[in-house]
Amino acid sequence: MPELPEVETVANGVDARVRGQRIASVWTSGKPQTFKSPESEIEEVLTGAVIAGVRRVGKTIVMTLTPRADADPDTIPAEFLIHLGMTGRLLVSQAEVPLPPHTHAVLSLVDGREVRFVDPRRFGRLSVHREAYAGPGAEPLTIAPSDFAMLFRGRRTPIKAALLNQSLLHGVGNIYADEALARAGIRPRRQAARVTRVELERLRVALVEVLKRAIELGGSSVSDYVDAEGIAGFFQLEHRVYARGGQPCRICGTPIRKIVVGGRGTHFCPQCQR
Prior knowledge:
This protein is of the alpha+beta class. It has six helices and ten strands. It folds into two domains: 4-129, MutM-like, N-terminal (N-terminal domain of MutM-like DNA repair proteins); 145-268, Helicase, Ruva Protein, domain 3 (Orthogonal Bundle), CATH 1.10.8. It has helices spanning 4-18, 39-46, 145-151, 159-164, 174-184, 197-216; strands spanning 23-28, 50-57, 60-66, 79-83, 89-94, 103-109, 113-118, 125-129, 257-261, 264-268. A hairpin with a 2-residue loop joins strand 9 (257-261) and strand 10. The model has no long low-confidence stretch (mean pLDDT 93).
């Protein structure tokens, strides 16, 4: 599933390409699961609106819309929320480019291009939000050290499971939890409440560094992920532990172990992480 760096990369790419564009028309596939808001509502809100900007909140792409010119003056600006799920892609294409299979929404722009949502497994979600979307948890790239430490105070769950709790930190997923814990030298099964304040600050710094580096490299392409132009990311080439079970640790040479924490495959170095 695309995580914070992948979603950030897609959001930034779409924003650079369509900010300020007006949506001429909207097509939706009618397939079940994909739509959290009625398709008729999505079409009504988006048609004629101007895309004021596209940003990331957690793992959600948020498209801010300026109401169409003939809308009621009291109309509240809406936001179009796109959650990529496991296999979702948000692409900006010329209209003459054939639609990929499993396309579930097309926003046709006045300039002739299209914003397309493609999702083979249909775990992604599209919806309309009537107020500024803030997400379920804290933003890991900007959270203060004291606030980060407080998230884990008294929690008996493993630190890896706490990192994946979207109500605490939104946007962190399996890849970057493993990579941050590896760089901070913390074992994923350690009880969150028993990780010291010094270790938590080391973890926060490692998490920020990992996420920023992944954004710089366009995310990790370990499955279906591609950016707004259909280009894969490169951070997977710098993974220290994720999906490297049995391979030597890049630091000490000890074989990377794979275990399950909170139902998720988890990778760590038994020598470097304590």
